[in-house]
Amino acid sequence: xxxxxxxxxxxxxxxxxxxxxxxxxxxxxxxxxxxxxxxxxxxxxxxxxxxxxxxxxxxxxxxxxxxxxxxxxxxxxxxxxxxxxxxxxxxxxxxxxxxxxxxxxxxxxxxxxxxxxxxxxxxxxxxxxxxxxxxxxxxxxxxxxxxxxxxxxxxxxxxxxxxxxxxxxxxxxxxxxxxxxxxxxxxxxxxxxxxxxxxxxxxxxxxxxxxxxxxxxxxxxxxxxxxxxxxxxxxxxxxxxxxxxxxxxxxxxxxxxxxxxxxxxxxxxxxxxxxxxxxxxxxxxxxxxxxxxxxxxxxxxxxxxxxxxxxxxxxxxxxxxxxxxxx
Length: 327
Prior knowledge:
Belongs to the metallo-beta-lactamase superfamily. The chain is an alpha/beta fold and 327 residues long.
């Protein structure tokens, strides 16, 4: 696989130009349920009484295959379980009470079925940005899919995540026989967490993003290491046209105003005189956001960015939810 750092025409800040036979992916948003976020927990200078009911968006990605009429289909994130009783941890159930109202329908499965796709037959890969309750959905809906997760995810599912409440990790929530991790990040201090089953990808830089995986090897879909929120958190960068990209930011932040610079990551009273924030490792989360902001600044309108709980984007773009396509 070609290392973009060695390409003479590659601008280290700008995104690479399309190859002569460049492949592009299609992408569409999927409904994955809704939850309510109190502003005081996520941004600086909040309205202390404001809570916004936001989507937990998922995305359908189609990659054309030259050897087959059928594209390879991926789903990025699975949203909220449509049956909330399927969450096994009591702490998760308690946490859900702090996010009311919560609506688990329509979910990712019904969103796919509405466009004629059967999750049990038509989805080749499920890529999870991370394993928080509002992103893991019901993996049993995808019995024939391969699950791809960030390095160390299987470890924290069994042993808990650093700097995150152990009792809110939904242990055993992924099908181990279907799940493969990305390789450890170069120079990571947590390589001991890596699973023995790893994809054969390698990490390289693209534009302002220091660690990215070229998933198909053709520059159409990049999985981005996006640390800070929880260990193993990943984003995706999609090439959807000659001069157009879509960045899926997962939970790099929970309010679009943090990306635009209008707000910063906020802190709240976690009890016993301690301040908490929405991210397990604040300094890493801030660096991830900085890298995304630089990506947007360096590439201008070429990059459309979406975070998982962006109610403003979802409200303005209902015509880009499956079965209609964004690109």
